[in-house]
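Weekly structure sync, notes
Attendees: PL (lead), two postdocs, one rotation student
Agenda item 3: pending single-chain targets
PL asked that the sequence for the first pending target be pasted directly into the notes so everyone works from the same version. It is reproduced below exactly as submitted, 508 residues in total.
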Amino acid sequence: MKHRTLTNDRLAETRDATTPEFGVRRSMFNVECSVFIALLVLAAGCVRFHPQPISAEQTAAQLESRRLDDAGLRKFVEQCQGHDLAPRPVTNWDLNTLTLAALYFHPDLAVARAQWRVADAGVKTAGQRPNPTVSVTPGYDSGIPGNFSPWIVPVTTDIPIETAGKRAKRIDEARDASRSAWWNLVNTAWQIRSAVRSALLDYTVARQRAELVQQQLAVQEELVKRMRQRFDLGEISRPELTPMLIALDRAKLDAGDAQVQLASTRSRLAESLGVTVDALEGQALNFDFTSRAPAELTSAAARRVALLGRSDLQASLADYAAAQDDLRLEIAKQYPDLHLGPGYAWNNGNAGDSQWQLGLTLELPILDQNQGPIAEAKARRALAAAQFTALQAKVIGEIERALSGYQAAQTAWETGVTLLAAEQRQQQSIESQQRIGSADRVDLLGAQMEYAIGRLGNLDGEAKLQAALGALEDALQRPANNLEIAGTTLTNIVQKSLGTSENEETHP
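Predicted structure, written out during the meeting:
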């Protein structure tokens, strides 16, 4: 009896499973499971948001804590120079090592690097394919005769298919935009190097000027002391003493101005490095005044290399290539994309009626053939070409002006060296005369004053020569010290600096 009851129950379950109502429940359950699984898959593939708040107080503290003995900077310098540094921290900084410090610390390079990463991420965006869509539009029809369910559930999809190679052209445009951003990054690095060189030159000149002015002041004070003694003895009159007193006051003012200039240039040097003035304490900062333009830097070959390879010119060429890719893309947009729309409609009619369909959508380019965007893209390409030509013409002018300026500054410096040598010989002659008694101490002090003034003039000439050399380097974008920085090209150094991007939270 029990066995018969179980058999009847199983028969009832079998009958229930073959009824239309059971089929509806099973179909709806399968749809719900499919939707749930699809949502889980989509959720697993989504990127989650992780907030990174910025604190102005914390950022300011990090900027103020930067030092030239930073361990990360030491590692970066070692990577760029290709060898380990001495166990002791670097305290003797020249243009090469200070340039590396600026490329490690300077916030402008971090901004340019971030801009390049944005453009580089655009390549991934350009390569993405459009997602298909699914539409479910349930309907209710109670007038279907003999149908157990009044619900109609049509499901349609839309599968977009890009034509005319639009995706490849979009990727090409994004890559050229990324290449432009990369060359802008290199150009920013060169501008940072140029600023460091100019600031280091000004600081070194200001330091030497302060020393020379202080020496000149000491000579002037002794000269006034001697003249006062003569005045007190009645050997000279007041009108003869007064110019000496005025010259002493002027020397004191010059000494004060030299100290102010020294502090100002020191602050500007720290700014060019991306650190505070306190970070320069205890550091020896040296500029090589013996640097001269080698023959390679003033040759026609160097000029041609600059006209073809300067980073700003390369960025402009990449902008033109991106404009041309944009024109190709707009022309390709004349051809409409295809949209496949397969669909399925379930209504469970008397015989479990189901309908399949295959849709095809194609936009008819009758009224709009994308002529407006094509015309704009053509104009942008012409603009990019004109901008490149204008930039190249500007570079030619910069090179010619820098080269002539360097040659003139070198001639003036050589004249100043000759004059300084003559003043030095004059001082030595008076020293000899004093030893034999034919000249007194006042005569020697006067000669020393003339020599001190000559040394100041020679320093000015040297500063102008080095500034002219810096302008030539900027015009060619090539350093004069063996045409390299620390044995590594600037572009390679920028590539190595990308590895420091993880330090940007520590060094914003």
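Discussion points:
- The mean pLDDT is 83.
- The domain at 72-497 is CATH 1.20.1600.10 (Outer membrane efflux proteins (OEP)).
Action: rotation student to compare against the earlier draft before next sync.
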